Amino acid sequence: MSTLSELSKAVETGKRNDAKQLTQALLEQGLKPLEVVEQGLVPGMSAIGEKFKNNEVFVPEMLIAARAMKECMAILEPLLADAGIKPKYTAVIGTVQGDLHDIGKNLVAMMLKGANFGIVDLGTNVPPEKFVDSAREHGARLVCLSALLTTTMPAMKTTVQAVRDAGLSSVKIMVGGAPVTQDFCNEIGADGYSQDAASAVDLALQLAEAC
Amino acid sequence: MDRSFYLDLAAAGLRMPIGTHLVLHEHADHGEIVLDGNRLGDVVAETADRFNTPLAVPLMDLKLEKEALLNSYGIPEADIESFHFEEPPAADPAFNLTPRMRATCDAISQVAKKPGLVPMGMGIGPFSLMTKLVSDPITPVFLAGTGLTAEDEPEVALIERAIEVGTKIILDYFTAQIDAGAQAMIVCEPAANLVYFSPNQLENSFEIFDRYVTGPMRRVKALLDARGVDLVFHDCGELTDSMVERFASLDAAMISFGCSRQLWEDAALVPKSTVLYGNLPTKNFLSSQLTVTEVERLAKNLLENMRATGHPFILGSECDVLSVPGSEREILAKVDAFMNLSR
Question: Which is it for the CA torsion B162, B164, B165, B167, positive or negative?
Answer without folding.
Answer: positive
